[in-house]
Amino acid sequence: MEKRKTICLITGMPETLHARRVAKGVFEQCDKYGYNVAVFASMSHFLFFIEEHAKGENNIYSLPNFKLFDGVIIDTVTLLEDGTGKVMKTVDRRIKECGNIPVVCLGIPYGGYHTINGYNDDILREMCRHVVNVHGKRDICVLTGKKGHPEAEERLAVFADELGKLGIELDEDHRIYGDFWYNSGIALAKEMIEGKRPMYEAVITAGDYMGLGLIEELTKHGIRVPEDIIVIGFDATDEAMLAEITLTSYETNYTKTAADAVDYLRKNIDPDGSIKPYVPDMQNLCHEGMSCGCQPDITQSARTFRDSLYYIYHNYTSENVFDNIDIGMLMESYASESLTASATPEECLKNIFGKVYLLLPFVNFRLCLREDWLSYDTYLKEGYPDKMMVAVADSTENGVKVNNWKDMFTIDTKDLVPELNEYTEKPCVFYFAAVHFGDNTLGYAVLQRELSDRHLLNLVFRNWLRLVNNSLEMARAKNRYVQLSIVDNMTGLYNRRGMYEKFSDMMKHADKDDRLMICVIDMDGLKYINDTFGHSEGDEAIITMSRAIKTLCGDNEVPVRAGGDEFVIIGIGAYSDDEPKKRAEHLADILEKSNSELDKPYRLDASIGCVLSDENSFELEKHLTKADEEMYRCKSSRRKNRTAL
User: Fold this and answer.
1) What are 243-274's pLDDT values in tens digits?
2) Could you tell me how far CA 280 lies from the centroid of its own chain?
3) Is 351 helix (H, G, I), strand (E, B) or coil?
4) Which residues form the GGDEF domain (predicted)?
């Protein structure tokens, strides 16, 4: 069947109230119309104080291939919190690279794209009416965001206009700019306490955090809220509901803004389709608290408190226990200990697969890693490679599962994830999140859920990803130390210790009728090169010979530098009887080509001994000795031929 249309939502910090409200509006409308949604979001604040972590998170915005989507919604309110502007520039550039695609911004215009303005005017006006008409306050101060910030200026203008209609002139001394954060509320409180500003009867804040900071600082100095001054906020954050003095606050109406953005795109991508407008419940957007003297919204506070609890004791026999996984269950699952204890990269990925259940409910989960994610020679700060490896995959609906090394497969990064381009039985959301350690990008994770599912991304997903990031870096570090102990530093081939470890791994995957093949190769004339041209030239000759050994080595075989000028190739497989002869001829051809390309004053030559075991006979030392004897016979024969000449 034809795949569903897909709307791309670019946002950030998806567990915040604003992002959840935006997601609610987008998801509800897309579910009505049968659209899929792809969400790309940084899981932390853009200006997080650990700069390397923020960079690693923000690289997710360089991933989307907008050619795959039918329309794009940009949550500019969130993205413009990146003070550097880099995130928006990256998104804008990626969209323009993909040609003509309908794009809509939420709340704040950007780059000439169509903008759906926030529907907050009625709510902001109701805040003013509540302070004046319900509480009878006239000496009112308004605290807003930064001067020049579109949202800050818009909210201030509406407050001033409505207060004017209520007969209160909002002069400059009653208009205060802040930063939408606790700091500006604290600063205003200090100015009032120090007498630099009057003690207003009421403060209307254009954001909850400013109001919370104000209350905190006032009460610290003995000023009572709401008896001496009332405070109300805007955003209805969890912090407002959980504060010691709960803050009366009003929800933003970005759910409708986001829903209308979907309707705008629908008119472009489905012009004949009907529009089913989202209708908000305005009465439920106000949550009364203690800060203005009203009866607190106990139901909302209790719900917020319950959702924030760290549950330790679960009913693990309950049928729906995995539908309600919280941060407590994540921590008590011992996922951190299990993942970091992984001895090898393969075991690490298996353990990650074993902890995917903590993200339930989902349809599919995919962990896509760089093919060279284990390499310490590659450090990827920006962008993604052309190919990615699906290293872990789980599904609850008969989809692909990958829980071991051999089942991993490679995809084109431009396709993002195979399921995105396939028909889904029900409308789904695909959450894309960065997988990284510091600012080194390792890959990305994709969580697919049904759109109708009530679960949104939360603290569990973010912290689960942190555990995965840490375990992958631990696996990289352990693997590096192992590689240093089993790999020859000069050539990059395995050393003797590595040979035995890799042989042990090969034995685990041997089939019944496989045979052991061993080639022992000894470089001829190394002493002459060292004595005549110097040891640096001798080292270069060894490195060139090692490249020849790698070329001679098959995909599932192990190349080894066993000593100064001695090399070994080990393989287990369905070899034919003429394999030793073919290897000797192939080596001669490889060296002949190298000599013609290098144009050195000496020739690279080598003697080879190659043996095959009987079927299902894998005695390594016995066949190493046989191959060594064959190599010396070859070397002796080559000497006799040179002497005869």
Assistant:
1) 899 999 998 888 999 999 999 999 999 999 99
2) 33
3) helix
4) 514-645
